[in-house]
Specification:
The chain is of the alpha+beta class and 98 residues long. 34% of the residues lie in helices and 28% in strands. The longest helix has 16 residues.
């Protein structure tokens, strides 16, 4: 299992619209092969910033599966206009603690 991580900086004042769009987008990612779970956490001290954590079976499930799927185009249409700047994605491996 890997974790996809991204810091999402939403344009000022658009967080509520982002919440609504994320709720619409969640089923698109949740239906993907290799998807395990998703979390979106608001920053405690930075308005309009969110931590995205998605658990996948593998990097390929995200990069070669979801990112090349028709559902990803819908995901982008729903969410990408909220970001400034566009987030970068980092992948993390298995935990060193259990």
């Amino acid at each position: 299992m890997i974790v996809e991580q991204a810091l999402l900086q939403v344009k000022a004042g658009q967080s509520e619209q982002f919440f609504a769009a994320m709720h619409k987008a969640k089923p698109l990612i949740a239906a993907q092969p290799g998807f395990q779970s998703i979390e979106v956490r608001p920053s405690v001290d930075r308005p309009d910033q969110f931590l995205l954590l998605v658990r996948w079976e593998s990097v390929e499930a995200h990069r070669d599966g979801f990112r090349k799927s028709p559902e990803y185009a819908q995901w982008r249409a729903l969410l990408h206009d909220f970001y400034d700047p566009m987030p970068s994605v980092t992948y993390f491996g298995e935990t060193i603690f259990s």
